Amino acid sequence: MARVGCSHDMNTRQPNILLTGTPGVGKTTLGKELAQRTGLTYVNIGELAQEGELYDGYDEEYQCPILDEDRVVDELDEKMTHGGVIVDYHGCDLFPERWFHIVFVLRTDNTQLYTRLESRGYTGKKLQDNVQCEIFQTIYEEAIEAYKEELVHQLPSNTPEDLESNLEQIVQWTKRWLKDHN
Ligand code: DAT
Description:
Shape: globular
Strand content: 15-25%
Helix content: 40-55%
Bound molecules: 2'-deoxyadenosine-5'-diphosphate
Strand order of the largest sheet: 2-5-1-6-7
Mean pLDDT: 94
Low-confidence stretches: none
Number of helices: 7
């Protein structure tokens, strides 16, 4: 498939897309393939934080470092203002609202998600809390609080067919956005 946003002309405006949802719903899988198909740049916030050690303490309960949200935002702001970025993170209210032109919340059935997280090595409370996060649609509610509701779209992410359909929809949306803004 042709790349739709690969222009290096500084005058070409490109959209920023947020992919969010509970860990394990498929943000990374979708984001990386979407970047291939659109020419937009994929940014994984977890990896960015790890590379730059953008942490502010350690969470003993979950055994993981705590994200320094201000430093993450500072680190990315220039790139986001320029445009053409796909951001992947399991949270969404830490980012400035102005960054994103569209927000996708991926959703996965509980049993499916349980299996995916278990095979990722999650156990006990961490596994249960993440599955509950999906059941209570925590990230979707966070998204509609943080962004204009009409920008927030839920996407089913259970099967390879869902993945392909999501890719096609977002590629089409991106093409339309580029046409409308250039
Ligand atoms: P996330 O980045 O949201 O944590 P991921 O992209 O790492 O999720 O995916 C978690 C696992 O689920 C991984 O083994 C790939 C698989 N997966 C992702 N999207 C899927 C889909 N639509 N159908 C089936 N499996 C999927």
